[in-house]
Amino acid sequence: NAGVTQTPKFRILKIGQSMTLQCTQDMNHNYMYWYRQDPGMGLKLIYYSVGAGITDKGEVPNGYNVSRSTTEDFPLRLELAAPSQTSVYFCASNRRPGQGGIEAFFGQGTRLTVV
Amino acid sequence: TQLLEQSPQFLSIQEGENLTVYCNSSSVFSSLQWYRQEPGEGPVLLVTVVTGGEVKKLKRLTFQFGDARKDSSLHITAAQPGDTGLYLCAGGEGSSNTGKLIFGQGTTLQVKP
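YS: structure for the whole thing
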């Protein structure tokens, strides 16, 4: 049972470089999310998608881009990396929210350092 | 903007003690989720509460959703070292048909043997 898989697990970027964080899920979930986690700050939503071809901004989208060409994959693109993007990034997915609340499944995270 | 204030941020206790973690907001949430996160891992869902006043129990953990659906608490009875970790509350934003979650800052719990 793979669930939500993120790659890479660790990455060091130089200021101004670009990279793509990969996220794939095998649960056939339409809803997918990217969060970043900074110490003492909980998780903040970057972008989300409610289905293939549909994406929208979250609370902290600046400096990031996403695409959703398939149900399974939701990559996060960092253009012109900045030290402020040093963080741990989590991808999550869930079924359409219903009466039972939101049961989100998270990947193991990508720890990114920008130097 | 909906916010969730979680307290305390840090808790260090001895094995066998009881503890309560609080999650408070001035906003109404459609649901409230509690997650536990181990170092180097993603959050794992413990429970979801959706009805005001709802109480759910998971072995030694008791979760409560406030009557007005603005706050929640997590109570652990007779804590064990295996309970050590980061506990996060998360509220379903707005009408929550998008599934977006608003997270509290987290409570780092250390249970010493």
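YS: worth flagging: Chain B touches chain A through 29 residues (CB under 8 Å).
IM: good catch. Also The mean pLDDT of chain B is 94.
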